[in-house]
Write a structure and sequence with these properties.
The complex is a heterodimer of chains A (about 270) and B (about 300). Chain A is mainly α and about 270 residues long. Helix content of chain A is about 75%, strand content about 0%. A two-stranded antiparallel ribbon of chain B has the order 1-2. Classes of the chains: A mainly alpha (about 270), B mainly alpha (about 300). The interface between A and B is large, with 90 and 90 residues.
Amino acid sequence: MKLRVYAIAYLIFLYAPIVLLPLFAFNDGTVIAFPLQGFSTQWFSELATTTALHTAVKNSLIIASLTAIFSTILGVCAARAGAMAHFPGKRGILGFVMLPLVLPEIIVAVSLLIVLRQILGLDLSNWSIIAAHVLICTPFSIAILNGAFQNIDPSLEEAALDLGESRWSAFRLVILPLVTPGIISSLLISFTISLDEFIIAFFLTGSNPTMPVYIWGLLRFPASIPVVMALGTILVALSILLLTLAEIARRRGLARTGTKDTGGFL
Amino acid sequence: MKRPRLAMSERRRAALLLSPPFLYAVLLLALPLFAIVLFSFWTQDFMTIDRTATLDNYREVFATEKWVPGAGLWENLQTIGNTIYLTLLGRSLYVSLFVTAVTVILAFPVAYFISFHVSPSRKSLWLFLITIPFWTSYLIRVFLWKVILGYNGVVNASLINIGLIDEPLTFILYNINAVIITLAHAFAPFAILPIFVALEKIDRSLLEASQDLGETRLRTFFRVTLPLAMPGVVAAVLIVFIPTIGDYVTPALMGGAGGQLIANMIQTQFLALNNAPLGAALALTAMVSVTIIALVFIWLNRKWLRART
């Protein structure tokens, strides 16, 4: 009982900042402080007319979509290999691929910055951010897809092979439908991570800032804070929607392979 | 009859499948990390990089003065450890350790509650609720802590309203405390998930056995549950401790002048001062210090667990 009270208090602590977002986004005042002034949607209409923001959002959407696709492809490769026969060095290689999960993001950022700018002499662009985001999203994709691939009964694929299907068509007809929910979940999660990522994007952004980099610029000007709150409200709503879809996909995948839910993405 | 050849080919196919993610990580992680090491031994010569190997960057990080050959060993040693970089690194390590301790200690009861007291059908809902804030608008979340802890913020306004204080509290914004609170919030799910996974793996009959053998519930917790949950706690510690050293957003927004950390300095060296080699040396120094502390922690934990069995 005491534990339940504590856990609920903890949830309130976790949600405290997010709950404030809509309060200030709809607040009819330029100062972000209590007491609230009154209801207004002016900050949302201001969002609609800011063209610099539109460019940043478009950039971020492109980066996040491509990151989601690439990291999920790499994730499928690794998770599938992880569920297959053991070979020498496999665990080490898998561990190495998962390394970005525990590496400080600033290390990833500066090491790529050095290689791209100083060694290869390239200009930074959306591609430099995509390259880095794929690196940090792949471990998450693998973690999600591991759940999907490891729950598959190997006899299903063997049966398809025995019945004369080729390896590829056995994969396409038997495995792929079973892991599709995991793939959707992985796409949505890596999309969400990339859309929100700032630390690396700030180092590697080219002439066109991504949305978080643009928001960072706005945070220095008190006058633009209410607009940031409005934008934040939309982003949080969008993330919750995407994550809910990812969670539904994950549960459907578990139901499909007939395993019990162990909870959580990781 | 066919078995060995089949197993062989499946091995090869597994290796083949694993090679794209492996190559990607080699190209975009291993090689860049190697490049950082290399750069840290070079120097910035105005606009170009001087590629003669030297320890100058590390001397600048660790000592206020360059080594004076004429002076004695003691005089030289005294100047060591007085640099702004080491001050920042020390503060960063302190913040990371403190955040890790707070996060893991606060997270453990939550993970325990979900694993032992929530019905299996509601577990994933709880985990889902806990992970949502973690995925959403990191920058704005950090900024909102400023709104909560600020001079006219939520905490101060409500404390004044209920008459607990007359003047707004100032020790909760623009200093290390603010950085610690914000980071502890940001990394909370990272701590809960690994502990939860470890708790879920515990065979519940072991706990019954312990109580049947006359242990109290408290002693059962300390002698059975906690040692078995330790792998999860260790994972939580590492997954919080190591990344927090690289966060420059929270100190930049919440830390004020006295709350800046090593990551802010790394960022300044790379982006504002255009001194990539010194930045690389700083990044490596931070990385190595964190790794050493993590390894010592793992070693101590192993020793503790072994002493108990």
